[in-house]
Amino acid sequence: LHELLRPGHKPGVRSSLLRQQQAGEQILPWVELYAIDMPGEVVEGAILLLLVDRSAELALRESEERLRKTLAELNQAQQLALIGIWTIDVASGKIYWSDQTYRLFGLSEGDPIDLQRFAAFVHEDDREAVLQAWNRAIESGHYDIEHRIRVGAEVRWVRERAHFEMDAQASLQGLGTVQDITQRKQLTLEIEKQRQRLDNIIWGADVGTWEWNMRTDEVLLNQRWAGMLGYRLEELEPISLDTWKRLVEPKDLVQAEAALQRHIQGETEVYEAEMRMRHKAGDWVWVLDRGRIVSRDEQGQPLWFVGTHLDITDRHKVEERVRLSEERLQLIFQGINDGVWDWDLATDELYFSPRWLALLGYLPGELDGNYETFIGLIHPQDQGLVRQAVAEYLGGRRAEYAVEMRMREKQGGWRWILTRGMALRDDAGVAYRFLGSHTDIHQRKQAEAKLQLAASVFAESHEGIMITDLQGLIIDVNQAFSRITGYAAEDVIGQNPALLNSGHQSPAFFAEMWRQLREQGHWSGEVWNRRKSGELFAELLTISAVRDEQGNSSHYVALFSDITAQKQHQSELERLAHFDVLTGLPNRSLFSDRLGQAMANANRRNQRIALAFIDLDGFKAINDNHGHKVGDQLLRELAQRMREVCREGDTVARIGGDEFVALFIDLGDFQASEPMLQRLLQACATPVQLDGQSMAVSASIGVAFYPQPQPIEADQLLRQADQAMYQAKLSGKNRYQLFTPKTISSE
């Protein structure tokens, strides 16, 4: 008031006061004071008090504020939901876009927009479909389409929905939304890709699939399930569990149902059974049926049981051929009259096969299995020769072990035996096992003696016999020669025996053979020759000089037998005894021998060794999901990797399904093993590409070191590494754990 009434105050200046009532509530009317302008002067003390109702103005302001907040919240909601709003006046083409719509199209807010500019954003492959949808919407009033847009270099998926209707001025108006569905579309495409990949895997694996609703007994099958039995799927309808039971061979059905019950009762992780199923044509198809319960109700009762059918008829045929082949091998081994012996040099245990014993007239159990028992059966005049040959061969001073000797029969007579063998050696070249065969050469020895009296008796010999002159030209052969080599007598008489040469023996070999013939009058050994068909064969060959009455050589007589089967069997015995069939790595037996030798060498050289126990993480899932074939390929690849990352002299072995061990020798200290352990982890963790798929596992490694403060045996060292591996798994897998006494206490 003082301000209004002071001299010189301009008339018409307004001041407003907002009064307060008790209880803190505001009163809406405004009190306004005006100084009154009188002509020529200002009347002191004259003021105008106006009571103005401003409630409508305040309500409008509050409404605008609420609208502003609502729009802000709506804009925020659009951003979170990736949904923009747009309107269009169809007649004028005027378009309104919300802030989020501008952001979605990568434009600045307020940029001019029209239908032509919008169309430029639409992906060229979708423009025709968008145009058709727009035209239909103009007629029907409803617009709903998913399409792609280009925002810079990025392609986005959007869904547009709108409603069109006439306004009060009969102008067609459209109100719509646009939503960014890129993530959803990518997820949908990925799900479809995964589904297609699963379909491809099932198709590529050529397996049938089944799904069993255990409440209703409804069974869902794919076409391959029916096709492997010669049916179309519709031919089996209506399909239920009885459909399967009706096709399974009755005896196999009993075993399969028992396996089903064991799985349903929780006794097995996976149901698996091999069975014969009746083909539409009437024959039997061998099927591997595998599956598991995938869902249960709240009470734990099974709901769905799913699985696969794999046609293993060919595998069964192969297994049958292998069985017959093994039987033939045994028959061949028996037919060639060879006995087998196997000597453990560490324990002095010497195994004699039944045929070995039968050659001398003994029954199993009648002889003690040790080296001195064997030596005691040898003729006194031959014992020194045998002992010397064994010592020289095991000591590495002799390339081959083959000795002809006389052995005492149970009835007291003497029989000529050819013993041959080979030693299995560790990395240091020390023999730890010696195994071989005994061949009855008694008849051959008698034949050799009789050759000096009458060369004609050679015709009935089972061994091949060839007689040459001093120049080495063939003058006669027996029937066994023709049977073994494939050459008839007329093919070779007058020819040089070099026509049998396989090229496996060097010129130096033949030079030494002729030197012995000239100096000693005989030569004996193994030779690889070639049959007339071109096939290689191994023969045990003895060449003797036939002398006249004056003691001069007149002819050479070669006596040989085909030992190809024995050679192949010996090679197979060695491989099966010491190497894993799947990976080619040393097996547990060979690894145990190498570990024992490494521990002994570590003590002698004051070096350290590390023993790593490796268990693959996640292998079982791959094996279950992709089948044993893929699992086997994965094991072979990982085995090769582990072998490659280890040093020369170190050993990697497979001792179980997905369990491996690695032996690192000649370590200066225990820390020297860490780089090798890291390489093993990396080798196992690197994905493997199999059949166009990436298979990934990892490894948990337990490590134990030797020597230790207290004496320790090899098997205990292996258990320590196993315990440490278990801790590595508990600690998160894909790592290694060093064994300490704390490792045991933490189990």
Keywords for this structure?
single chain; 747 residues; alpha+beta; five-stranded antiparallel sheet; 24 helices; 31% strand; elongated
Write a compact overview of the structure shown:
The chain has 747 residues and is α+β, with helices and mostly antiparallel strands. It is elongated, with a radius of gyration of 47 Å.
How do the strands and helices of this protein lay out in sequence?
Blueprint: H1 2-5, E1 14-17, E2 30-38, E3 41-52, H2 55-81, E4 83-89, E5 94-97, H3 99-104, H4 115-121, H5 127-140, E6 142-151, E7 154-166, E8 172-180, H6 182-205, E9 207-213, E10 219-221, H7 223-227, H8 241-247, H9 250-264, E11 271-278, E12 284-296, E13 302-311, H10 313-335, E14 338-344, E15 349-352, H11 354-359, H12 371-376, H13 380-394, E16 401-408, E17 414-425, E18 431-440, H14 442-451, E19 464-468, E20 474-477, H15 479-485, H16 489-492, H17 507-520, E21 522-530, E22 536-547, E23 553-562, H18 564-578, H19 588-605, E24 608-617, H20 619-626, H21 628-645, E25 651-654, E26 659-667, H22 674-685, E27 688-690, E28 693-695, E29 698-706, H23 714-730, E30 735-738, H24 741-745
Parallel strand pairs: 29-30
Antiparallel strand pairs: 1-2, 2-3, 4-5, 4-8, 6-7, 7-8, 9-10, 9-13, 11-12, 12-13, 14-15, 14-18, 16-17, 17-18, 19-20, 19-23, 21-22, 22-23, 24-26, 24-29, 25-26, 27-28
Helix pairs in contact: 20-21, 21-22
